[in-house]
C-alpha cells in the first residue's frame, strides 16, 4: 500500500497513561465490575473517557487491516462483502468502513493519527471522510491539517460541520458542484423497522423545497390540533404527510406484494406468536391478522417438514411460475449470509450442489442482484448441500453458511462461520 503522503508509523500504546493509572483501573474493573461501586464520580467519568480512547486506538488498527485487505483485493467492491461477513454487519455499513479506511490511510493521515492517540473515534472520523470525499488530493491535505486541532473534543455534529466548512472554504467551486451532484442523487427511501412500522424519507431534496414542504405539513397539522384532537403535533405531521402522499385524503393505497409467514394457530387467533414479514423481520400477531384480513390478500398453504420447519410444498402447485414462487416462499430472503432483501425482489440462481460439478446437479436458490454479481467474482465459491444449506467461501478461505429459514415459531435461521481449507 502506497499512501499519497507520509503516514506516521503505528506505535504501540504506552503501557501506562499520562497519570500511570489507566491500565491498572481497566484491568481492575474488568476483573471485578464491582470495583466501580467504590469509585468517585470523577473517576468513573475518567474511566469512560479513557476506555473510549483505547477503543479509538484499536479502531485505527482495525482500519489499517481493512485498508490492507482492500488493497490485496485490488479495491474490488467484493472486499466490502468480505468485511461484512467477517464483522457480521450489513454490506452498506461495511462499504462505508472500507471507504473510510482507504481515505484515512491515503488522504487523511492526521485524522488517523488522532485515532492512534485516542482522540478521535471511528464514528467521528467517518464524518470527516464523508465531508471530504469529493476533494482533490491537494485540497484534502489542507483540510486534514486544518482539522487536526479542531476536531478533538468535538461531538459528531460539530466535526461534520467543521469538516464541511473547511472543505467548502478550500474549494468553493467544488462545493457548488457537489451540491448539484447531490441533487441528482435525490430519492425516496423506506426503511422497515421492527414492530410493523417503517421510516419513509426523501433524501437529497433541495433545501428550499424541503423547507417549504415541511412548512405546509406543519401548517396543516396545527390546523387539525383542536382541543378535542388526541394526537400530538408530531403524530399529526406524520399523518398529514402520509395522507398527502396518498392523494391528499389518506385514501386507498396501491396494491403491492409482500410475503407474510404466519402459522395456522396464530392465524386462527389461538396464540400470539409473531409472524414474519419477509425482508422486514417479525411483526406482532395482531398486525399480521389485520394484514391477512385485507380485501386483496391471497392466502397460500405451505407444507413444512415437522423436524426442521423448512418449506417442502406450496399449494396449488404448477410448474415454472409456481415453482419460482415456491422457491421464493421457501427461502423468504436472499440466501447470502446476513442479507435480508425479500425473496420476491431476488433472482433465482442455479447453484452448484455440494460434491457435484457446475451444472451437473444445480439447485435453485434466491440471491439479490448484488449477491448474484458477487457469485462471479474471483475467489468466491457457492455450493448447496442436500439439506439446503448454502455455503459461501470468501477469497480468504472463510466459509459462511445459512440454512433454509424455518417456518416454525422459535426456529431461527442459522449463520455459521468456519475455516475452509484452500483447494
Reconstruct the topology from this structure:
Blueprint (H helix, E strand, L loop, with lengths): L21 H10 L9 H32 L5 H10 L3 H16 L2 H8 L5 H11 L4 H11 L8 H15 L1 H13 L2 E6 L5 E6 L3 H18 L8 H13 L14 E2 L2 H4 L7 E3 L3 E3 L1 H8 L8 E4 L6 E5 L5 H11 L15 E5 L11 E5 L1 H6 L6 E4 L5 E4 L4 E5 L12 E5 L4
Antiparallel strand pairs: 1-2, 3-4, 4-5, 6-7, 8-9, 10-11, 11-12, 12-13
Helix pairs in contact: 2-4, 2-5, 3-4, 4-6, 6-8, 7-8, 8-9, 10-11
Write structural notes for this entry:
The longest helix has 32 residues, at 41-72. The chain has helices spanning 22-31, 41-72, 78-87, 91-106, 109-116, 122-132, 137-147, 156-170, 172-184, 207-224, 233-245, 264-267, 285-292, 321-331, 369-374; strands at 187-192, 198-203, 260-261, 275-277, 281-283, 301-304, 311-315, 347-351, 363-367, 381-384, 390-393, 398-402, 415-419. A 4-stranded antiparallel beta sheet has the order 10-11-12-13, with no helix packed on it. Strands 3-4-5 form a 3-stranded antiparallel beta sheet, covered by helices on one side. A two-stranded antiparallel ribbon has the order 1-2. Helix 2 crosses helix 5 (109-116), helix 3 crosses helix 4 (91-106) and helix 7 (137-147) packs across helix 8 (156-170). The chain is built from 15 helices and 13 strands. With 423 residues, it is of the alpha+beta class. Residues 1-21, 250-254 and 317-321 have low confidence and may be disordered. The protein is globular and about 65 Å long.
Distance N terminus to C terminus?
28 Å
Low-confidence parts: 1-21, 250-254, 317-321
Shape by Cα distribution: globular
- Quaternary organization: single chain
User: How are strands sequenced across the largest beta sheet?
Assistant: 10-11-12-13
The overall pLDDT, averaged over residues, is: 81
Number of strands: 13
Biggest beta sheet summary: 4 strands, antiparallel
Secondary-structure element string: HHHHHHHHHEEHHEHEEHEEHEEHEEEE
* Estimated share of beta-strand residues: 5-15%
